Amino acid sequence: MHSSATEGSGVARASRTGVEIAGATRVAIISRLNDCGADLACCVFSGDWGSMPSLKDFVAALQAGWFPALAAFIGCAIVLLGDYFRWPYLDGSPAYLLTIAVYVGVFSFSVLTANLAYMPVLIWNIYSDRRAKERFFKRIEKEIEEAPSAERELLSYLVSSGRRAFTSEFDDKRLVPLVSKGLIIRQGGQHSVLDWPFVVRQEVWDYLTEHKERFEISDLTNVEDPFRKNGWLI
Predict the structure, then answer these.
(1) Number of other residues whose CB lies within 10 A of the CB of residue 94
(2) Cα separation, 159 vs 213, whole angstroms
(3) Are 181 and 175 spatial neighbours (Cβ–Cβ below 8 Å)?
(4) Distance CA 152, CA 150 (A)
(5) Which of 132, 145, 126, 136 is nearest to 215 (CA)?
(6) Residues 90-128: tens digit of each pLDDT
(7) Tens-digit pLDDT profile for residues 66-77
């Protein structure tokens, strides 16, 4: 009788513990995505549920992506199915662990559902970004190909000399059209107005180097450096 009473009181305490954990403030099973398995094992085997993160922390962790939510959902499903079908090593799961698995499974399933619902939007955003980049590259090509001869000469000299980064006067009038078109970028920061750093936009540089045979100056020996009077190579 004493043994039965003890077991009954133990079950009752486990049930109350499960309700308290599930309905109160300490329901989460992970505090960080990388350590979720270790945190759960420590809490289960040590019984130190006070170190568990809050439900808000757990939901925020699952919202980090669909993969941790999927992992949590599969793990909880295995625990619940193992207890229901009496699988070895899982048929004697404590009540509080099953309660946690239910709540974690519900939240992780919700995160998965939300990610699936957001998938068309994500695909559309990727498609839109790709189209925007294509339009941008086409605009860059058009600006380079239709640039006046003076601007093309500057770009040709830069790609022929391998100078993607260079310095010149801050208000160098020769560079104003190229900067306004976005072909050359005027760097920020604090510098001398007589020796301000500029850099050829990466997309422009890639296009120039890809079509170098059309822009390259074969012999730079007798070509005067257009920036030597105003600035120097970085």
Answers:
(1) 15
(2) 10
(3) no
(4) 6
(5) 145
(6) 888 888 888 888 888 888 888 888 888 888 888 999 999
(7) 788 888 889 889
